[in-house]
Amino acid sequence: MKKKSISECERDQFNKLIKLRLPNAFKTVGLIIAVLAFLSMFGRKLLIEGDAELYKSISRQALLIGLLLMSISKDKIEDEMTYSLRMQSYGFAFILGVLYAMMMPYVDYGVSNALKPEGETLKNLGDFQILIFMLMIQLMFYHTSKRIG
Amino acid sequence: MQNKIKIERAILDLTQDDLAKKIGVSRQTINSIEANRYVPSTVLALKLSEVFNKSVNEFFSLSEED
Question: Which of A57, A101, B23, B31 could form a disulfide with B47 if both were Cys (CB 3.0 to 4.6 A apart)?
Fold first, then answer.
């Protein structure tokens, strides 16, 4: 029997990791989690009195988990084109995410200072804002490119 | 890259869905290949070759842009 070299094993493991996808059912699970988390963000002000930071944090994490599950779940029919489109969408989302993280603080600063003289100070975006932006761009780009072929 | 998949499919009287099922891809993938929006891998080209019973060169050809 032919033995695999260490580099071949490493390559196989690496390829498995890159191609790791959850079953299609997780797409629905992710959608349900994301919708519930999104709705809970609106309901927070009505339902929770006093300190709602923990509730807000859980809602945000749930929304990220929901979108991530949708992002890494397989389609009903997974083939080489869907794989290629998915990889393109991750690349596109990454580039836009970096640009967004670099530019948005200045946009926020400029707008807030243009509207009122004592506007906000320059501050970086939070991790939630960047991650949600990247996940949404990835999902939109992927589904749009799949629809238009 | 140009292709004659639509013609080959018509010869065998196959719909896009039929062909997609035969080679294990989605109907959108066949549609994109036929419209030259997606260039398939060698593996997929060889699967098409098996279905059409023709060599890959007979239904895929390079265009001037390639």
Answer: B23
What ipTM did this prediction achieve?
0.84
Phi and psi at residue B3, to the nearest 5°: -145, 160
Q: Show the tokens assigned to A28.
A: 């629905």
Residue A51: pLDDT above 70? no
**Contact yes or no for B26 and A149 at CB 8 A:** no
What digits encode the pLDDT tens for the residues B22-64? Answer: 999 999 999 999 999 999 999 999 999 999 999 999 999 998 8
Kindly list the residues from chain B whose CB atom is less than 8 angstroms away from the CB atom of residue A82.
26, 29
Q: Is B38–A81 a contact, with Cβ atoms under 8 angstroms apart?
A: yes
Instruction: Return all residues near A49 (Cβ < 8 A) that are at least 6 apart.
Output: none
- Are B45 and B56 within 8 A, CB to CB? yes
d(CA A143, CA A78): 13
Entry pTM? 0.83
Q: Which residue has the tokens 């191609």?
A: A19
B19 burial type by CB count under 10 A (0-12 exposed, 13-18 middle, 19+ buried): buried
Q: Burial level of B62, CB count in 10 A (0-12/13-18/19+)? A: exposed
